[in-house]
Write a structure and sequence with these properties.
The protein contains 2 helices and 8 strands; from the N terminus they run αββββββαββ. With about 140 residues, it is mostly beta strands. The relative contact order is 0.26.
Length: about 140
C-alpha cells in the first residue's frame, strides 16, 4: 500500500512539473515607424488594468519596420488576461497625453475594444488562456 501511495505522489508531481503554460501570439498593426518601443502590458485582473507598472507581465519590443509587429509571449499561466499596447515613439516609458488626458501616442487593447472616455472594461477585453494553448490575437493601434 505504501508503494502504491508513493507511486501516486510521484506521478502527480511529474504531471504538475511538466504542465505547460500557454502562449500569447500578438500581431500588432498600425506601427507607423521604427522609433522607440512598442510596450505590451498583460493584466490578470480588473483592479490593476491598465495601470502602468501593475501588469502581470510587461514586454518591450523595438520595431524593426513600419507595419505589423508579431510578438510571441510564452509561459502565461491559465487564466483571463487583458492586454494593453502602446507605441512609445519617444522612448520615455510612459504614455504621453495631452492636457485633456487624451493619449498622444498610438494604443490598442485586446479584442480591439476601446472605451469612450477612458480605457475599456477589463471583462470586455479579457481573453482566456489555457495550458499548452497558443492564443492568437490582432491588436490594432489607433
Amino acid at each position: 500500500m505504501k508503494q502504491l501511495i508513493l507511486v501516486f505522489i510521484m506521478a502527480t508531481a511529474a504531471f504538475w512539473g511538466f504542465a505547460q503554460n500557454g502562449t500569447l501570439k500578438l500581431t500588432i498593426t498600425g506601427v507607423e515607424n521604427k522609433n522607440g518601443t512598442v510596450e505590451i502590458g498583460i493584466f490578470d485582473n480588473k483592479d490593476s488594468f491598465p495601470n502602468e507598472g501593475k501588469e502581470f507581465k510587461g514586454v518591450s519590443v523595438k520595431p524593426q519596420k513600419k507595419g505589423n509587429l508579431v510578438v510571441a509571449i510564452k509561459n502565461i499561466p491559465a487564466g483571463f488576461y487583458g492586454i494593453a499596447v502602446w507605441h512609445d515613439e519617444n522612448g520615455n516609458k510612459k504614455m504621453d497625453k495631452n492636457l485633456l488626458g487624451i493619449p498622444k501616442e498610438k494604443y490598442g487593447f485586446s479584442k480591439n475594444i476601446y472605451g469612450r472616455f477612458g480605457p475599456p472594461n477589463f471583462d470586455k477585453i479579457a481573453v482566456k488562456v489555457t495550458s499548452e494553448q497558443v492564443v492568437e490575437l490582432t491588436i490594432n493601434l489607433k
